[in-house]
Amino acid sequence: MDQKTFNSFANSLLSQAAKIRNAKMEEYEATVDRLANFRKASCMTGEKIPKIIAGMMVKHTVSIYDMVEGEFNQFNTDPPYPLELWREKLIDQINYLLLLYGAIREDRS
Questions:
Q1: Residue 22 above 70 pLDDT?
Q2: Rounded CA gap, 86 and 69, in Å?
Q3: Per-position b or e across 21-39, b if 16+ CB within 10 A of its CB
Q4: Which DSSP letter does residue 78 get?
């Protein structure tokens, strides 16, 4: 894959991830504190916020692994997953990774 093509779809994916992050911010009423719900979960469980985020991110990680295993298994005869489903799963993961990084930075400050 050439660099121009890669950059084009990477930028598109990151742009869509930002749109979804902003929509979720309003949905979860986290307009002041992006980590508000994770902070609440931290208080409920006694775990640090990065651990809370990583725990919630596991669901998305497992889903991606299952899709990779299912689609790219040499014995697979099923049709491939739609690109839109890949896009959705990867955007979720990107957003969790960004939240995790934010929580780690906050924890260290």
A1: yes
A2: 13
A3: beeeeeeeebeeebbebbb
A4: S
